[in-house]
Amino acid sequence: MSFDLALRLTEALLALALAQQALEHMASPLRGEAALFAPRLALAAALALGVAPGWVCAALLAHGLLVLRRFDGPYNGGSDRMTLLCLICLTGAHWAPEPAWRALSLAYLAGQLTLSYAISGWVKIVNPDWRTGRALRDVFLFSTYPVSGNLRGFAGRPALMRATGWAVMLFEILFPLSFLHPAALAASLVVAAAFHLANAALFGLNRFFWAWLAAYPSLLWLQARLMG
Amino acid sequence: MNAGGGSIAGMIRMLALFLPALFPSWRFFPAVEPSPRIEVAHVGAGPAEAWRAFRPPPARLTAAQMIARLFWSPRRNEDLYLASCAERIIADGRDHARREILKRIRAATPEARGRALRFRLVTVHREGERLVERTVYVSPIDAPAGDPPEPAS
Fold first, then answer.
1. Which domain of life is it from (chain B) (predicted)?
2. How large is the average pLDDT for residues A54-69?
3. In 3-state terms, what secondary structure has residue A177?
4. Domain count of chain A?
5. pLDDT, tens only, B4-39
6. Is B11 near chain A, with CB under 8 Å?
């Protein structure tokens, strides 16, 4: 995958994520929320169409900081952070003075994407509660994440929780190894997308799915550039 | 002098918000912490009203509803934001988070119009095999717009 194609795909996927977020906010009955997010929707449309992407990314980044200030932090935790990181890296990829710096900016996004899986796998695997399946049982038993009451029933299936917990930890911690081969990376990204889909369905983390998906082209490009 | 100090504090705050986006920690779910719920009670001239869970999750969702929520889930995302606000209040008593919760409770409950209300945060955690609930915060009474607010105690 070429640098230009990776950049364009990242922009298009991020535009989808940003439009989805903006539309949800604009449905709010709260005064001012629709007005705050209308510019994001317009800019996301421009980004999807490839209109002045350098300026649009910079404007979206400025808007993202304004929103961060408005909510005194992220509205949607990690997905807002990944969205902003994509915007920072895209802005750098358009505005850095040298081609090498532009490439470095997109490579930084790919590196952070890899770390996002590896680090969250590591922090789980060092915790005995995750290794025994207790932590995942607790997520279903009493955390605020399950989207419906009946999902709490999964907490009563300890063997399933232990197996699922180990599958998640091993996938996350071994994810960086997939960088060594393009087929392994493609397969890993499919599994990763399925993981985010499951999180969206079970825990309502739909914005994570779109935000992480937007970062995938950067990793495919970096793999081809360094290992191809 | 104050304006200058305020703008420097604002820039530092902005930097503190921005840096975690540039250098994210990605430490998702290292441990399952006590989980906060929001409960609301309207306050009036009559007897005190019982606390009620604010927007408890539905008992069941169909597969089609779960898939649809991949594209459209404003209420669920607001619930996640409210959970973050609750955690911010528990962590450092942030007034912004308190105001956000009140504003969103009022917007979501038409029966709250014209009535004073308060909310509390109840955490749930596990001790051995037992689930333990603990009230960790009770907000001041929020008077409806136009009425004087309850003085801070």
1. Bacteria
2. 96
3. helix
4. 1
5. 667 888 888 888 888 998 999 888 888 888 889 999
6. no
Antiparallel, parallel or unpaired: β B35-43 and B116-127: antiparallel
Question: Each residue of B75-113: pLDDT tens digit?
Answer: 999 999 999 999 999 998 889 999 999 999 999 988 877
Residue of B nearest to A27 (CA): B74
C-alpha distances (whole Å) from A99 to each of A105, B2, B99 are: 10, 44, 46
User: Is the pLDDT assigned to residue B147 strictly greater than 60?
Assistant: no
What is the helix (H) or strand (E) element at residue B118, kind and residue range? strand B116-127
Distances in whole angstroms, Cα of residue B77 to Cα of each of A71, A79, B140: 13, 11, 26
Give the range of the structural domain holding residue B44, as residue numbers without chain letter.
29-138
From chain B, the residues in CB contact with A142 under 8 A are 32, 35, 124-126, 131
User: Among residues 71-130 of chain A, which lie with CB inside 8 Å of chain B?
Assistant: 71-78, 80-82, 84-85, 88, 112, 115-116, 119-120, 123-124, 127, 129
Strands B52-53 and B35-43: antiparallel
At residue A65, what are phi and psi to the nearest 5 degrees?
A: -70, -40
Q: Cα dist. B45→A25, A105, B49, B116 in Å?
A: 36, 61, 10, 10
3-state secondary structure of B41: strand
What is the maximum span of chain B, computed from C-alpha positions, in angstroms?
Answer: 59
Which three-class secondary structure state does DSSP give residue B60?
coil
